[in-house]
């Protein structure tokens, strides 16, 4: 799987390196790119009454000249609309010189129903907001509801951030080259790209390998080998023990959702850690999940002394305040020496640190601290990282990476385009989410899955990526109608399948 995501700048560096190394020069790469886009058009829209190719002044436009020529040779009626001449001597200028079609000015652009648009105005070289003739063409195409095949990126969509600059095409298909860019996965870019096709234009994987890329699309290939595999001789505590903190008597459900999810994710034992006044409510709803009273620091110390959980979930339904801060700092301070692998801080656990985030970050940064995993949605992210959240020059990917570095934690920045970032700089963008996953309690389940995997010894970044993907995959398979209570059980077939593909897969004991 080619999961690395290249920023437009990295892609340009890869292009330069590939051209320097050979065997293909820039024009050959461009011809290949154009040929592969033309092939997609042929396969997908063989009956198009007419194809409008819009070619810009850079190499994206160069691809457009190649595409227009090939489609005309294949028998399509092609109109070639250009905006600005390619720089003399550039690959685009060479491609333009080889294209014999009449050039119409984008200024005059017009189209009719049942026609197709190939958008080769701007790709990774987008340098300012799209306006003027290009914006007018975009509006006309949108009003006619014409299908658009975008070359590399829909014009107007930033390859770095997925944000729209000025206006942007909404493509049915986007054909990109060598590797996807973050803008193909981050919103709103992901929606505007339509289906993303990755075309191999002949750039050697080794050239990309040398770039030491640390940003990926989240996919099982990224973490499958790190998934815990139960051994035959295992016993319940060796399969990991999760402690999920419950809130008071009227808010216990969230912790139970986390607990169930942790158990379904494979933790051998799960305990709900409940304040005294919520013990009865919790007891009435738990069967396989254990229950212990933890009202204060003294109770927590007792839990830590005897079969301590190897991972904790703190936050779902817990309540905001000093108790959450004290418990979190206690667990981080207690350290790995006591067998604690990680703390998942979610919801109220995050909000509890809004006035003193540096205390949390300092505790997570101590050498002996267990892994901290933070799971903020946008609002919670802004509470914990106000300066990063408020910086409009940063993409969601940049924000998550900075937050991870600042907090010394793995950050799961949730949303329809969840970004997972590790403190040492790795990041993954998730793309298998479905709208019906946004349901009450869904976040509690995610926190539980992360803790379940951490408790079994899975490293934090891999556990976070795996949890986000499995959570979404379980929801996708369940289909609409899903409520959070359905999710823990819906994880089981997903995990079975993943484990079946594990290189060390063996019968489960
Ligand atoms: N060998 C390779 O490199 C290969 C590259 N390939 C292809 O090249 C593409 C990247 O090419 P690229 O770097 O030339 O950038 P591109 O997207 O054409 O835009 C730059 C031009 O557009 C202009 N411009 C930008 N924004 C604008 C705006 N809003 N409104 C108006 N003008 C605007 C900008 O103007 P400037 O900023 O210079 O003033 C400049 O003239 C890549 O996406 C892929 O399709 C493939 O062929 C495979 C091999
Ligand atoms: K484009």
Descriptive notes:
This protein has 509 residues and is of the alpha/beta class. The chain folds into two domains: 205 residues, YjeF N-terminal domain (Rossmann fold, 3-Layer(aba) Sandwich); 273 residues, Ribokinase (UDP-N-acetylmuramoyl-L-alanine:D-glutamate ligase). Helices cover 41% and strands 14% of the residues. The strands form two sheets. A ten-stranded mixed β-sheet has the order 8-17-16-15-14-13-12-9-10-11, with helices on both faces. Helix 2 crosses helix 3 and helix 3 packs parallel to helix 4. It is elongated and about 80 Å long. The chain starts with 7 loop residues before the first helix and ends in a 9-residue tail after the last helix. 52% of the residues are buried. The model has no long low-confidence stretch (mean pLDDT 95). The structure holds ligand NPW and potassium ion. Potassium ion (K) binds next to strand 4 and strand 5.
- Largest sheet properties: 10 strands, mixed
Ligands (ions, cofactors included): ligand NPW, potassium ion
Mean pLDDT: 95
Looking at the structure, what is the overall shape? elongated
Helix count, DSSP H or I runs of 4 or more residues: 21
Protein name: Bifunctional NAD(P)H-hydrate repair enzyme
Keywords: ATP-binding, Isomerase, Lyase, Metal-binding, Multifunctional enzyme, NAD, NADP, Nucleotide-binding, Potassium
Pfam family, one: Carb_kinase
Subunit structure: Homotetramer.
């Amino acid at each position: 799987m080619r999961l690395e995501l290249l920023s437009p700048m990295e892609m340009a560096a890869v292009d330069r390196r590939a051209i320097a190394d050979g065997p293909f020069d820039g024009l050959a790469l461009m011809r290949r790119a154009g040929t592969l886009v033309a092939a997609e058009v042929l396969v997908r829209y063989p009956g198009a009454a007419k194809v409008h190719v819009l070619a810009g002044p850079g190499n994206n436009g160069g691809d457009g000249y190649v595409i227009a020529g090939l489609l005309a040779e294949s028998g399509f009626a092609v109109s070639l609309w250009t905006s600005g001449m390619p720089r003399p001597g550039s690959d685009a200028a060479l491609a333009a010189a080889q294209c014999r079609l009449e050039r119409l000015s984008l200024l005059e652009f017009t189209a009719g129903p049942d026609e197709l648009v190939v958008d080769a105005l701007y790709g990774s070289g987008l340098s300012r907001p799209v306006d003027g003739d290009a914006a007018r063409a975009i509006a006309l195409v949108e009003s006619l509801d014409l299908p658009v095949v975008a070359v590399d990126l829909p014009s107007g969509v930033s390859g770095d951030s997925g944000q729209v600059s000025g206006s942007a095409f909404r493509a049915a298909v986007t054909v990109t080259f060598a590797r996807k860019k973050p803008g193909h996965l981050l919103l709103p870019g992901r929606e505007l790209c339509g289906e993303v096709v990755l075309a191999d234009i002949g750039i050697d994987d080794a050239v990309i390998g040398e770039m030491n890329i640390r940003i990926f699309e989240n996919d099982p290939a990224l973490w499958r080998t790190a998934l815990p595999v139960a051994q035959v001789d295992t016993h319940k505590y060796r399969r990991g023990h999760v402690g999920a903190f419950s809130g008071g008597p009227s808010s216990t459900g969230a912790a139970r959702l986390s607990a169930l999810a942790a158990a379904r994710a494979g933790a051998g034992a799960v305990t709900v850690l409940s304040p005294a006044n919520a013990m009865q409510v919790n007891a009435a709803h738990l069967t396989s999940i254990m229950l212990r009273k933890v009202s204060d620091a003294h109770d927590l110390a007792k839990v830590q002394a005897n079969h301590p959980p190897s991972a904790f979930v703190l936050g779902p339904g817990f309540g905001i305040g000093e108790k959450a801060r004290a418990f979190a700092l206690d667990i981080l301070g207690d350290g790995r020496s006591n067998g604690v692998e990680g703390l998942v801080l979610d919801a109220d656990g995050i909000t509890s640190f809004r006035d003193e985030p540096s205390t949390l970050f300092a505790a997570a940064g101590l050498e002996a601290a267990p892994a901290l995993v933070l799971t903020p949605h946008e609002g919670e992210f802004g509470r914990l990282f106000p300066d990063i959240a408020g910086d409009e020059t940063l993409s969601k990917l940049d924000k998550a990476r900075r937050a991870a570095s600042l907090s010394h934690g793995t950050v799961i920045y949730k949303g329809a385009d969840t970004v997972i970032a590790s403190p040492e700089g790795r990041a993954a963008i998730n793309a298998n989410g479905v709208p019906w996953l946004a349901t009450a309690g869904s976040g509690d389940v995610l926190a539980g899955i992360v803790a379940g995997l951490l408790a079994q010894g899975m490293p934090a970044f891999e556990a976070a990526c795996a949890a986000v993907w499995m959570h979404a995959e379980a929801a996708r398979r369940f289909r609409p109608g899903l409520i959070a209570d359905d999710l823990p059980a819906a994880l089981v077939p997903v995990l079975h399948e993943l484990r079946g593909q594990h290189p060390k897969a063996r019968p489960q004991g």
